[in-house]
Structure formats: C-alpha cells, structure tokens
Amino acid sequence: MDAKARKSMAETSVRDMIESEGNEDDPKAWKWKIRKRVWDLMESNNIAQFPRPVHHRIPNFVGAHLVANKLGELEVFQEAKCVKVNPDSPQKQVRFLTLSEGKQLLTPQPRLRTGFFSVLESQMLTPSTIIEACTSVGVAKYGRPIGLDEKIKVDLIVIGSVAVDPKTGARLGKGEGFAELEYGMLRYMGAIDDFTPVVTTVSTGYASVFVTNATRTHHFHHSLRSLVPTHLVSVYSTIASSLAPISQDSDIAVHDEQLVDDIPVEKLLIHDVPVDIICTPTKVIFTNTSIPKPQGIYWEKLSPEKLGQIRVLRELKKRIEREMGKKLPSGPSEKLPPTAQRKR
Question: How far apart are CA 191 and CA 153, in angstroms?
C-alpha cells in the first residue's frame, strides 16, 4: 500500500474515531485521545508493518519479532506450561515461540465472534502447518475449541497494547474491550488468578538501532534460532526471511511511541487489565503495578450492544442467572467503537 492510500485510509479512520470519542463527559473519551496520538505517531514515523493504517488496531510494529525474543528470555515464559496469547499480528512470533518451546498455546477467536478459545500444542502440528497455526485463521483451523467448563491453568498472559505506562502498568488496548472480557471469563473458569503474570509487547521504535552491519544481523538471527527445536529450524528460517528486513547500515533513533506517562490511574475502569511486565525491542520493564486486576465479568458495565456481539458471553450470563435464580444487571447502552478497516 502506498503512502497516499495509507493517508486516505487513516483520514477515514480518524473521522470514525472522532465520532466514537463522544464528549468530554464520556468516561472513555480521554482514552481515545491517547490512542489517536499513538496511532498517528506510529504512522507518521512509519514504524508500523502490515496491516496499515494502525488506527483501531493493536499496531503491528517494526521489530515485533525482536520483542518476541526478549519475551522468550523471561523466566515466567520459560517456566510456563500454558500461555494465553492474543491473536493480533505483532504477537504472531510469540505464538510461534510458545508452540516451538513445546508449550500449550491458548488463543481467543478474533473478537470472540466464532467461538471462545482454542488450544494448540506442537504435537498437533507439523512443520508445514505450524506457521499457519500461528495466524488467526490457522488457530480456528488447527486448534481444539474449548468451552467454559474446560479445566485449564494458564501460567502466563501475553496481551497486545496501543499504549502502556511503564511506571504504573496501566494499559490501553484498541478500545473494543475484548482483552478485558477474555480475562474476566478466564477468572470465572478459575484458569487464572491475581498472581498470573500479564505481559505486553510494544514498540520503542525500529530495533535495528542494535544491528548496524551484516555480521550483527547474522548473529541476531542465529541467537533467536537457538530458541527453536531442531525439527522446526527450517520453519523458523522461513518465518525469519519474511520478517521486516534489517538494514546493514541502519542507525535509527529509538522512539517510545507506545510507552506513555499520561494514563490517569484514577480514571481507569474496574475491568481494565494492568500489566506486570513490558517487553520492547530494547528492554524489559517490570512495572510492579499496584492497580487491582479484574475479578471477573462486571455485568453492570457491559452494554447490551457488546453482549449482543459475543455468543459465549451471552451463554455465560444465562448460566449464572440460572445458578443464581435471578437476573444479572446490564450496563448502559453504548455506540460501539469502529473496527479496523480490512482494505489492503
């Protein structure tokens, strides 16, 4: 897609965003201002990969594969047996590392529109199918669907972000609330608790700041390949060759587009999920967040429009109402935010 086409799509996206922001009395309006600033910066600095524009998406930033390498070095990742990873593009390499390390991968169906979660394990796949299995289409194709009664323990949650505060762990997603709903349903299932680490991967600019010649490029790919089991090395090589090229002579400054310091903790909602660890292409940040994690689904905050989008959530509400013998509350009506455009 050329710059003119991206500009046209971004302008359309911004118009949609303005409509979604509402007025200053809207408790979510301040979030949209931060999101728009981050999305605009990433587009103007051209540090995003396909799909573009990044507006209304978890941005697929340049260097996302380097962040996966950082995450793979974390003790919480190495010790985890089951890792829940969001289905967005910048976390594709995280999903691949999870499977290649022999771990159980738990991934939600995109926007929960076709189901709930799918479980994948490396023994379910072959070298020719593992790459596709790391995509949203492949998750549905090769994964084993699970329901609300599945007995599963999630050891680590990897979540995408638009913006995150490294000092507080406060996080903003793309504004659709699915990460929070997924978290709440996992709490209901008993799959996670307050001590389950939440990690996010974000950009601090093009990570080739460390890679200034062909020799270093070779050493980087060699070190990352060492994380991959022998029988999947050829598969990794295929993935690596398709990643954003690393310039031999690049010396690009690092920008902290997604790391922010103006998310007001006191304005966060009860269902907002904070993060414990932030991985960037250049560093790992332990936030030591004091923000409480959600304890489940907050039905009084959930609008009829959002509930109408998600079949598994409607099923859960009916189940709880039968168990309790009374109706659960509903949240106020809302105009749902626009979703990312699917044009190429």
Answer: 4
H-helix or E-strand spanning residue 172: strand 171-172
Answer yes or no: pTM beyond 0.90: no
Cα separation, 176 vs 329, whole angstroms: 20
Nearest to 160 by CA among 97, 93, 227: 93
Interval 252-275: pLDDT, tens:
334 468 999 999 999 999 999 999
Q: What pLDDT is recorded for position 121?
A: 93
Task: State whether residue 180 is helix, strand or coil.
Answer: helix
Answer whether 287's CB lies under 8 Å from 276's CB. yes
Nearest CA to 78 out of 64, 98, 94, 95 is that of 98
- How many CA atoms are closer than 13 Å to the CA of 91, on its beta-carbon side? 27
Cα–Cα distance for residue pair 142/332, rounded to 1 Å: 38
Parallel, antiparallel or unpaired: strands 171-172 and 163-164: antiparallel
Report the candidate in 107, 106, 103, 58 with the shortest Cα–Cα distance to residue 77: 103
Q: What average pLDDT score do residues 323-344 get?
A: 82
**Phi, psi dihedrals of residue 17, rounded to the nearest 5°:** -65, -40
CB 113 within 8 A of CB 309: yes
Q: How far apart are CA 53 and CA 3, in angstroms?
A: 10
The contacts of residue 335 (CB under 8 Å, 6+ apart) are 19, 20, 22, 305
Q: Is the pLDDT of residue 195 over 70?
A: yes
Rg of the chain in Å (alpha carbons): 20
Strands annotated E in 81-162: 82-85, 104-108, 117-120, 144-146, 156-160
Kindly report each contact of residues 28-34 with a partner whose C-beta sits within 8 Å and lies 24 or more positions away, as own/partner: 28/175, 30/264, 30/267, 31/172, 31/175, 32/175, 32/337, 34/162, 34/163, 34/172, 34/260, 34/262, 34/263
What is the C-alpha to C-alpha distance for residues 137 and 80, in angstroms, rounded to an integer? Answer: 25
d(CA 339, CA 51): 13
CA distance 128 to 138: 12
Q: With 0-12 CB in 10 A as exposed, 13-18 as middle and 19+ as buried, what is 27? A: exposed
Closest-CA residue to 229 (of 72, 75, 84): 72
Amino acid at 163: A
Which token pair is 208?
Answer: 């080739």
The DSSP secondary-structure symbol of 213 reads: S
